[in-house]
């Protein structure tokens, strides 16, 4: 096998994973427009798995490229910006009329701004800045919370498809959550990225035990666990941002200043 052919295969693999994630994002949109909300939410969850894999595969195979970064960003906008906004609008926000589609559009716009800011920051990386924090909630996390809420609500019959009351508590909660997730994506709050996590290398046995425990909990009630993890990630920003501020005061972190005009 020639080196050129091998190189092409290395670069194709992570981009194929990105394409797979984009397919499931598109699938989620189609399912949402068809009224199959649970299937659409599962599509976004699967897209998140592909998104987690493509970057890791590219780095592991030394196949990181500028094309791959841009392609991944466009795929993320479709899968974690457009797809969850359309899905949640069709599922619970449509009865609100203009307020409902305004909330969905706000989510879309904030996801685009979040991705654009991230691209600007990573295009000129500062070696003084660690990767332990995200500036603003990552778009896959926001989309995942929307999907987890839909799966949880459908599993527990909190929403009856086609009978959502615009002034019901669940509908108002969903509306406010969509606005909140959009604001969190473009905020200056620091969320842990877990990219600095090395516990699986230092204590692999305990990591396996923790993984087995997580799988057990997911087996007991998948949708409740997914929603709990998502809500916990939101609440965890209270600790991670305070930790970031402390490290910043100690000179162990450097504040990102690129594209700061896009920050709230």
From TrEMBL:
Pfam families to which the protein is assigned, alphabetical: CDP-OH_P_transf
Membrane topology classification: Multi-pass membrane protein
Localization: Endomembrane system
Domain of life of the native organism: Bacteria
Family of the protein in this entry: Belongs to the CDP-alcohol phosphatidyltransferase class-I family.
Annotated PANTHER family: CDP-DIACYLGLYCEROL--GLYCEROL-3-PHOSPHATE 3-PHOSPHATIDYLTRANSFERASE-RELATED (PTHR14269), CDP-DIACYLGLYCEROL--SERINE O-PHOSPHATIDYLTRANSFERASE (PTHR14269:SF61)
Catalytic reaction annotation: a CDP-1,2-diacyl-sn-glycerol + L-serine = a 1,2-diacyl-sn-glycero-3-phospho-L-serine + CMP + H(+)
Transmembrane segments: 12-31, 99-116, 137-154, 166-186, 206-235
Keywords: Lipid biosynthesis, Lipid metabolism, Membrane, Phospholipid biosynthesis, Phospholipid metabolism, Transferase, Transmembrane, Transmembrane helix
Assigned EC number: 2.7.8.8
UniProt GO MF annotations: CDP-diacylglycerol-serine O-phosphatidyltransferase activity
Protein name: CDP-diacylglycerol--serine O-phosphatidyltransferase
Record-level GO BP terms: phospholipid biosynthetic process
Any one Gene Ontology cellular component term annotated for this protein: endomembrane system
Enzyme class: transferase
């Amino acid at each position: 096998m020639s080196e050129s052919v091998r190189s092409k295969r290395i670069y194709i693999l992570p981009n194929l994973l990105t394409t797979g994630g984009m397919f499931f994002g598109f699938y989620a949109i189609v399912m949402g427009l068809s009224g199959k909300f649970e299937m659409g939410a599962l599509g976004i969850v699967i897209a998140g798995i592909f998104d987690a894999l493509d970057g890791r595969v590219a780095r592991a195979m030394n196949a990181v490229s500028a094309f791959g970064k841009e392609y991944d960003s466009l795929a993320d906008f479709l899968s974690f910006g457009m797809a969850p906004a359309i899905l949640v609008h069709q599922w619970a926000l449509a009865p609100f009329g203009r307020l409902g589609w305004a909330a969905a559009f706000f989510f879309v716009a904030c996801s685009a701004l979040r991705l654009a800011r991230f691209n600007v920051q990573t295009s000129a990386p500062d070696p003084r800045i660690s990767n332990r924090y995200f500036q603003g909630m990552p778009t896959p996390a926001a989309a995942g919370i929307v999907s987890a809420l839909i799966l949880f609500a459908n599993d527990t019959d909190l929403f009856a498809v086609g009978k959502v009351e615009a002034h019901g508590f669940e509908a108002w909660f969903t509306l406010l959550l969509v606005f909140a997730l959009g604001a969190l994506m473009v905020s200056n709050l620091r969320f842990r990225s877990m990219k600095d996590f090395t516990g699986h290398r230092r204590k692999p046995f305990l990591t396996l035990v923790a993984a087995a425990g997580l799988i057990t909990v997911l087996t007991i009630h998948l949708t409740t666990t997914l929603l709990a993890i998502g809500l916990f990630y939101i609440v965890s920003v209270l600790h991670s941002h305070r930790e970031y501020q402390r490290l910043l005061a100690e000179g162990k972190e450097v504040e990102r200043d690129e594209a700061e005009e896009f920050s709230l």
